[in-house]
């Protein structure tokens, strides 16, 4: 089983590189985990639909038929940390998936092909988050979920 945070390359912020390494190291105690940043196109804001379509095609190319796909979207389902941990354990880890992909789409979102392919569309809250912040929050919640699953003293109930 491998968990992959799948996103698009964006600005290189030193704080994010540090946070990413911290959470990669923490998560690797529980599961194979990596962050995969696909190259984005150089289209500008006036080409938002073309960029969304192109990026969605790149995501679809990365996916394998037997992947469990979780899309992060502000209009998705809301789960608290404990419910997310239970979902991850029951619908993800206890199934025969080789990979679970957690997708943080591009600046303009993803098209219906990616949304239709996702088994879970999950929100982090009603706010729109910067991609690097969203990735950091997701990694922290994945780490929190594993500590809940394993009964480790991190999450305060």
Overall description:
There is one protein chain. The protein is built from 5 helices and 5 strands; from the N terminus they run βαβαβαβαβα. The chain is an alpha/beta fold and 157 residues long. It has a single domain (2-150), classed as SPOUT methyltransferase, trefoil knot domain (Alpha/beta knot). Strands 2-1-4-3-5 form a 5-stranded parallel β-sheet. Helix 3 (81-93) links the parallel strand 3 (68-78) and strand 4 (99-104). The model has no long low-confidence stretch (mean pLDDT 93).
The main sheet comes to: 5 strands, parallel
Element string (H = helix, E = strand): EHEHEHEHEH
CATH topology: Alpha/beta knot
- Say which CATH homologous superfamily is assigned: SPOUT methyltransferase, trefoil knot domain
The proportion of residues in beta strands is 15-25%
CATH architecture: 3-Layer(aba) Sandwich
Distance between the termini: 28 Å
User: Can you list the strand order of the major beta sheet?
Assistant: 2-1-4-3-5
The level 1 CATH classification is Alpha Beta
General shape? globular
How much helicity do the residues have?
40-55%
Q: Provide the gyration radius in Å.
A: 15 Å
Number of strands: 5
Helix count equals 5
Mean of all residue-level pLDDT scores = 93
Helix-strand makeup class: alpha/beta
Low-confidence stretches: none
Number of self-contained structural domains: 1
